[in-house]
């Protein structure tokens, strides 16, 4: 709850979305907010006079949003739905979508596929989206403390060469909040996305050419997005802006590039596309003064060849012993057996499990998969 209440303090972001929602929503609109949290934007849509508002949230915080709705007169005006897209069911398609749960890179495969599922099953053709579009920006980064932390550990500490571990870190995109003076040159817009368009047309990333007025050591690239909410409302999470919890993405360059004043810096960042077109792992590079440095997110993930093969669509999967037990728990959860009964059935297959361990296995397997009321509702009703 500390996290969700903390979001309420981001007044610049919330007021911009409030104005955009009021502009986008009319009395005939059916509004869908995905990732509603405490219900903030769903309440704004109801205030704007929407005909119907659905507020979808997979986290139990949705029950708190329902209590807030009852307290503030929104009961019956906003319908809260606990679940994850695409598993939830709505009686009709929405004419307006409100969504702002973006990662610092704006798009990754989950968000890309979420928008595809929304357009396929939950939105009317031509539905409006808040935000309407996004622009991606790129800039070279001067020596900066987050980059410097990569080198804080002595690579020869204790008489052992630790450099293989460093190679993973310098290929890992870092989620940070940068000051505005950390940029080595003016940023360049590298791409623009229209959220009402089909996701397959989205092309995040791109390239830019920069020039610094002074000698500079380029130790990374800064990558961020600006949102066009419609109605002349904009939100930027550029370095130094910080209107929200997004922050920026820092892409390290190792070794840094020493660039004399007036020389060009050419930089590029792109995600590798996955089989369905979704943006995958990021690759980036920069070149200046005859030198080049690059990084790739793939190289930040310690993994064996067997780990990678396990994700291949050609792999024939086999459940582990724990997986087989969880599958059995789900099979036995038929709406007639109590948790203790399911646990006893499990112990028939695994007599080495204690009664408490079997019950914990059942509860852990079913966590987040059961229909439920909020605990406060049960408590207040004397349950």
Detailed description of the structure:
It is a single chain. This protein is of the alpha/beta class and 383 residues long. The chain is 29% helix and 29% strand. It contains 12 helices and 15 strands. The protein has helices at residues 2-7, 11-24, 40-47, 61-71, 109-121, 145-150, 163-169, 305-309, 321-332, 339-349, 355-366, 375-380; strands at residues 30-34, 52-57, 79-82, 94-98, 123-130, 133-142, 174-176, 188-194, 206-211, 216-230, 233-236, 248-259, 264-273, 279-288, 291-296. Strands 6, 7, 8, 10, 11 and 12 form a 6-stranded antiparallel beta sheet that branches. The protein has a 5-stranded parallel beta sheet with strand order 3-2-1-4-5. A 4-stranded antiparallel beta sheet has the order 9-13-14-15, with no helix packed on it. A hairpin with a 2-residue loop joins strand 10 (216-230) and strand 11. Helix 2 packs parallel to helix 3 (40-47), helix 9 (321-332) packs across helix 10 and helix 9 (321-332) crosses helix 11 (355-366). The model has no long low-confidence stretch (mean pLDDT 89).
């Amino acid at each position: 709850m500390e996290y969700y209440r903390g979001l309420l303090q981001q007044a610049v972001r919330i007021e911009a979305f409030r104005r955009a929602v009021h502009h986008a929503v009319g009395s005939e609109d059916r509004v869908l907010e995905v990732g509603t949290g405490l219900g903030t934007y769903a309440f704004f849509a109801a205030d704007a006079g929407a005909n119907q508002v659905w507020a979808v949230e997979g986290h139990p915080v949705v029950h708190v949003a329902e209590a807030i709705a009852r307290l503030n007169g929104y009961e019956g005006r906003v319908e809260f739905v606990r679940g994850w897209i695409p598993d939830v069911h709505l009686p009709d398609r929405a004419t307006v979508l409100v969504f702002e749960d973006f990662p610092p890179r704006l798009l990754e495969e989950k968000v890309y596929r979420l928008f595809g599922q929304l357009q396929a099953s939950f939105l009317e053709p031509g539905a409006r989206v808040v935000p309407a579009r996004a622009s991606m920006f790129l800039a070279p980064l001067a020596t900066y403390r987050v980059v410097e932390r990569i080198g804080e550990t002595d690579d020869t500490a204790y008489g052992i060469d630790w450099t293989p571990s460093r190679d993973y870190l310098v290929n890992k995109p870092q989620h940070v909040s940068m000051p505005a003076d950390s940029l080595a040159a003016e940023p360049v817009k590298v791409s623009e996305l229209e959220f009402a368009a089909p996701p397959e047309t989205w092309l995040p990333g791109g390239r830019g050419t920069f020039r610094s007025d002074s000698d500079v050591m380029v130790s990374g690239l800064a990558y961020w997005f600006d949102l066009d909410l419609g109605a002349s409302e904009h939100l930027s999470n550029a370095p130094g802006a910080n209107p929200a919890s997004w922050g920026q993405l820092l892409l390290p360059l190792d070794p840094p590039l020493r660039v004399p004043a007036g020389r060009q810096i050419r930089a590029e960042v792109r995600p590798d596309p996955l089989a369905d077109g979704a943006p995958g792992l990021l690759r980036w590079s920069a070149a200046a003064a005859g030198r080049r440095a690059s990084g790739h997110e793939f190289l930040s993930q310690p993994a064996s060849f067997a780990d990678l093969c396990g994700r291949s669509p050609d792999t024939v999967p086999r459940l582990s012993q724990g997986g087989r037990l969880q599958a059995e728990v789900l099979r036995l959860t038929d709406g007639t057996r109590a948790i203790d009964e399911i646990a006893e059935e499990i112990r028939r297959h695994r007599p080495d499990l204690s009664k408490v361990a079997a019950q914990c296995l059942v509860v852990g397997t079913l966590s987040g998969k059961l229909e439920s009321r909020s605990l406060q509702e049960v408590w207040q009703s004397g349950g």
